[in-house]
Structures are given as structure tokens and as C-alpha cells.
From TrEMBL:
PANTHER family: DUF72 DOMAIN-CONTAINING PROTEIN, UNCHARACTERIZED PROTEIN YECE
Provenance organism: Verrucosispora sioxanthis
Pfam families: DUF72
Protein name per Swiss-Prot or TrEMBL: DUF72 domain-containing protein
């Protein structure tokens, strides 16, 4: 099992002097990040889909083993609410595929007010080529049905395992040949850090579910104060001690 560990985004001003050296210009932050992490989840594509040239530039600026998960534009998920998905998906793929071999999973985060519609989800997932991995994060309880699980399994799309306050907020279904975990907010201090016990629990859940030849993507979305970077480093250390291969993360701070 290979666990790719990263953060949800890299352009956070309060990471300066915590993760980025104070004198490093922001235009060089991606290179600094990619030298220390092997994956990132791009959240800003949800709010404004970058042009194809931007995705191509990210590919050119990152090493060959770097993996970029990209969050689907909210135009499809929150405005269209999965209706008429052909044009939004085609536009998204027409741009994001400029990442080439750097393109990782596409994240479909559904709005919390969107009730279950397995046929609409099925129609959307059909539009993605088999070469593109898709992870789906429903956020309304009506989605937790056999019909939803069947749709995800049919398309080898991962149900996102999500955590807030150290507790799962979605079923821990295995629906694909890969895993996808998002950690939104921990309960440890200082806020919004995760404690070692909570992180160790997620390591255990992943290792119990996915085999030695499978991949799991883990992204920390608790960015304030650099918590995501610190927790990613701790999580990777715990996974390595559990005997799993883990992508590179920054060295933990000296004590």
C-alpha cells in the first residue's frame, strides 16, 4: 500500500515563516512545496477553474513524481447540482488534463443541501474516462444507501472518507481500487490540529481496508496556522511505523 500524503492547497499566507522561508517569494512556493510533498489537492479550481495554461505550468514546475488532485468546479456540483453534466465535465477535463501524468484524482464534493440522486451521479461519472480517478464526497445523509454505493462501485469511484473533530462524517465504504481521505478539522490544541490518537486511528482504518498494492490519497484541509503541514508529517510517520510506504513529507521540527 502506498499512501500519498499532502495538504488541500499550498498558497496560505500564514504558512510564511512556518513552512515557507520568510524571504521566499510567493511565486516560488509551489516548487518549495513540491520538493517536500509529493501530492497536493487543488481547492481553488472549485471556485474558479484555471485555464489550461495554468495546469500546464503546474506540470512544468513540479517533479515527475508529483501528483495533483483537483477539485471539480462548483459550477457542476453546486450550481448545476449534477444536472446536464456533459459540458462542465468536458470543460474541466479540457483544462485539467494539461497536467498530464501529474493529474491525480478528481474530487467531486457535493453540496450539503443536495439530496441523493444516484442516477444523476451515475450520468456524471460516465463522462470521465477510465484513466481518470474520481473521488466523491456527498454531504447529505440521504446518500448513504445501497444505490449510491452501487453507482460508485460501477465506476470504480472512491467514496471520500471524511473527518471533522476526529470523527468520521461518512461511511467507510470501500468502493474503488484506491482510497481518498480528507481531514477537515481536529480537536487537539492549538486549533485545528489533530492529535496523534486520531491520526493513528485513520492509519489503522486505511491499512485494514487497502492492500499492499493499492494507493490511498490523504489530504489535510485544516490549513490555519500550518496545522495541515504538521499533521501531514505526523500522519506519515505513523503510517511508516505501521509498515506502509508513504510519500515524502517535510522533516518534523527538531525538539
Amino acid at each position: 500500500m502506498v499512501i500519498l500524503v499532502g495538504t488541500s492547497g499550498w498558497q496560505y499566507r500564514d504558512w510564511r515563516d512556518r513552512f515557507y522561508p520568510g524571504g521566499l517569494p510567493q511565486r516560488a512556493w509551489l516548487e518549495h512545496y513540491a520538493d517536500r510533498f509529493a501530492t497536493v489537492e487543488v481547492n481553488n479550481a472549485f471556485y474558479r477553474l484555471p485555464e489550461r495554461e495554468t495546469f500546464a505550468a503546474w506540470r512544468a514546475r513540479t517533479p515527475g513524481d508529483f501528483c495533483v488532485a483537483v477539485k471539480m468546479s462548483r459550477y457542476l456540483t453546486h450550481i448545476k447540482r449534477l444536472r446536464d453534466p456533459a459540458e462542465p465535465v468536458a470543460r474541466f477535463l479540457g483544462r485539467a488534463t494539461a497536467l498530464g501524468d501529474r493529474l491525480g484524482p478528481v474530487l467531486l464534493q457535493l453540496p450539503p443541501t443536495l439530496r441523493a440522486d444516484p442516477p444523476a451521479l451515475d450520468a456524471t461519472l460516465r463522462l470521465f474516462p477510465s484513466s481518470v480517478r474520481v473521488a466523491v464526497e456527498p454531504r447529505h445523509v440521504s446518500w448513504w444507501t445501497d444505490a449510491t454505493r452501487t453507482v460508485l462501485e460501477r465506476h470504480d469511484a472512491a467514496l471520500v472518507w471524511a473527518d471533522r473533530h476526529g470523527r468520521p462524517i461518512a461511511p467507510r465504504w470501500r468502493t474503488a481500487g484506491f482510497g481518498y481521505l480528507r481531514l477537515h478539522e481536529g480537536r487537539a490544541r492549538p486549533w485545528p490540529h489533530y492529535g496523534r490518537t486520531a491520526l493513528a486511528s485513520w492509519v489503522r482504518r486505511l491499512t485494514e481496508t487497502f492492500g499492499d498494492d493499492e494507493t490511498a490519497y490523504v489530504y489535510f484541509n485544516n490549513d490555519p496556522g500550518g496545522a495541515a503541514v504538521a499533521n501531514a508529517t505526523t500522519f506519515a510517520g505513523l503510517a511508516a511505523r505501521a509498515g506502509r510506504r508513504v510519500s515524502r513529507v517535510p522533516e518534523p521540527p527538531a525538539r
